[in-house]
Amino acid sequence: MLEAGFVIREVTAPSGQAEALIVANALNGPALEAHTAALATVSAQAKRLETRGGTLILLQDTGGRFQPDDERAWRSGLTGLARTAAQEFPKALVRAIDVDIADLGARSASDRVVEELLSGGTAPCIGLSAKGRLGPVELALGDFTPQTAQIGPQDVILVTGGARGVTADCIIELARQTGARFALLGRSEITPWPADLDPSTDQKALRGALAARAKAAGEKITPAALNAQARALLSGAEIRATLTAIEQAGGTALYLQADVANPTALTPALRQVEQSLGPITGLVHGAGVLADKRIAEKTADQVAKVFTPKIAGLETLLSQIDVNELKTIAFFSSVAARYGNVGQADYAMANEVLNRMAQKLKAAHPDATVTSLGWGPWDGGMVDATLKAKFAEMGISLIPREAGAKVFTEALLAGRDCPVELIIGSEIAHG
Ligand SMILES: NC(=O)c1ccc[n+]([C@@H]2O[C@H](COP(=O)([O-])OP(=O)(O)OC[C@H]3O[C@@H](n4cnc5c(N)ncnc54)[C@H](OP(=O)(O)O)[C@@H]3O)[C@@H](O)[C@H]2O)c1
Q1: Which domain holds residue 411?
Q2: pTM of the entire structure?
């Protein structure tokens, strides 16, 4: 039997094992810790939920409609977990409940949660607030009218993850259409290409060439070191190619080596942007990492890899940039946030935080272009050969790089009326 208050995390059956799991970790606390703890709690019970079913309740306090316009938006990622859990635990009932504790008060809020649980409701997402029992805010995913935003050569756009992958494709196209200045942020060094190695974009071939080179020089090198060398050379070459392509497209480009989630690295990087290019007028947050594993198999390390660039990265950015000066804010999110995806609970959560933060920022800055782009899989970037084969098997076609870059640019140039959340699949449909 549940009691009032939010201390109960598990309802334990006589067998000693949880039949229902009520996850309350994300009701308060900093975003990164709250999401990490919630996912760890579910992961610890995942095998049982997978095999025997049961009930999984994910509690959040985000205003009772899953869309707070205050700081609670940082803790809005649980629906990404709920949608993924529903797919990974088909035998279980998975529900996300948003209870507005600030509005209801702790006592009444806990009574309402208990009432909801005992009433036997099954709605996957339900909000409880003084306004009643409501579903999530309906999202406008409509189309956009092109070309109302003024982005031009005077603009300085900070792009996390912009030197590589699909974000780079998008920025090259934006440079072509605006001639703006871009500061690209990434962790990789621009490793110089050795003069005695032929250019290559194929990691396997490059590893072979590096091994042959080491052998000829009488050096011993481990396979791990060979891989690391090859990756560093390819990253460096990709960054150089992006910088050249932006300049050739009519823009200006500067690369800064910094981890977006590390405040002490970000501060000097931002200072350098201002000194070299001018005040920042736009932010594109494209940094992201994948570490797919089912919830039952997620490790703390994998989860941190996924959460850090998206959640901690955005926190760090927003603490160091004057958002009032931004005309444009764009986040690279994923369809996984909206629909869930097996193996991507953490990724869905992190991207849902981006979606909800975009809505919060738009509410505070209605004249800015603010959009969170919920991409389907691209033919590039983090979609490697293994993932491509998986998508082909599932009959899912990929977003062509050029077409995706054009949609991105259209969205950003749509200006203040651009929908705050977009869903973009291979058919390049908006909404
Ligand atoms: N490709 C897709 O199909 C797809 C689909 C949906 C959403 N997205 C989103 O689109 C974005 C770009 O994806 P992608 O496919 O281009 O991936 P990618 O090729 O792996 O590129 C990711 C980029 O993020 C940077 N990055 C990662 N962690 C960082 C950190 N802590 N600080 C600074 N930069 C960091 C990487 O640079 P360093 O490694 O040098 O740091 C790299 O430039 C991601 O946010 C992803 O979630 C992609």
Answers
A1: 156-195+232-424
A2: 0.94
